[in-house]
Design a protein that fits this description.
- This protein is an alpha+beta fold and about 220 residues long.
- It folds into two domains: about 30 residues; about 150 residues, Jelly Rolls, CATH 2.60.120.10.
- It has four helices and eleven strands; from the N terminus they run αββββββββββαααβ.
- A six-stranded antiparallel sheet has the order 1-2-3-10-5-8, covered by helices on one side. It has a five-stranded antiparallel sheet with strand order 7-6-9-4-11, with no helix packed on it.
- The radius of gyration is 30 Å and the shape is globular.
């Protein structure tokens, strides 16, 4: 009987020690009973003194994003994510080109670009190769590749594009115009040369394409 009693006492002692150990472990590691959590509890994005409060995970609505009219053709461009806070590496926009218009050949010196065709069809030039593109196609442009897009269809071509830099959005803002009168007043060879010089660290036109050819003929109003 003494043996059985001692054995039971030992079991109770081990159980007590184990319970204390588990309790201390849970406290040390921050364990808690998730069943007691409030279902409405929110989990905000972690804040940092290095990141502005405006830079956070979010949903951007195209209808309320910044819209400009880019190039002498006044292509409609909506800057979905300009990354003006320069805290991440991505930037993104959507652009619409009317039939017969194009984005002239150009080069991004230090950034990749992904172009996803949302509607319409066109001809994408990559280096010395030109390929037809249409809704659902993805174009991958590596740094230093000469590329351009021409709308060869009968309807506007709309595409989404993203860069692993925010530098290009500044270029687009500088290359935008209010209306055709603004184009006629400001757009000339000097304008283009100054624009290319300002953004020369990341944007260029091919050596075989002088800046004047970037101009696209406009129809009279």
């Amino acid at each position: 009987m003494q043996f059985v009693s001692t054995k039971n006492n030992l079991r109770r002692a081990l159980g007590l020690l184990l319970g204390i150990s588990l309790t201390m472990g849970a406290s040390a590691h921050g364990y808690h009973n998730h069943e007691d959590d409030d279902d409405d509890e929110e989990y905000p994005v972690a804040n940092s003194p290095l990141i502005p409060t405006e830079y956070k995970s979010q949903v951007v609505r195209e209808r309320s994003a910044e819209t400009i009219h880019e190039s002498p053709d006044l292509n409609k461009m909506t800057i979905l994510w300009g990354n003006d806070y320069n805290q991440g590496v991505m930037s993104a926009a959507v652009e619409t080109i009317m039939p017969g218009k194009k984005i002239p050949l150009h080069i991004h010196k230090n950034s990749e670009e992904l172009i996803y065709i949302l509607r319409g069809e066109g001809l994408e030039t990559l280096g010395s190769t030109s390929s037809p593109v249409r809704k659902g196609d993805l174009v991958v442009v590596t740094p230093g590749t000469v590329h351009g897009l021409e709308n060869t269809g009968n309807e506007p071509i709309k595409f989404f594009f993203v860069y692993n830099t925010n530098e290009m959005m500044g270029f687009f803002r500088d290359y935008s115009f209010r209306n055709r009168k603004d184009v006629e007043e400001r757009f000339n060879q000097e304008f283009m040369i100054n624009l290319l010089i300002k953004h020369s660290s990341h944007f260029a036109v091919p050596s075989f394409q002088p800046p004047t050819t970037v101009q696209i003929p406009l129809k009279a109003n």
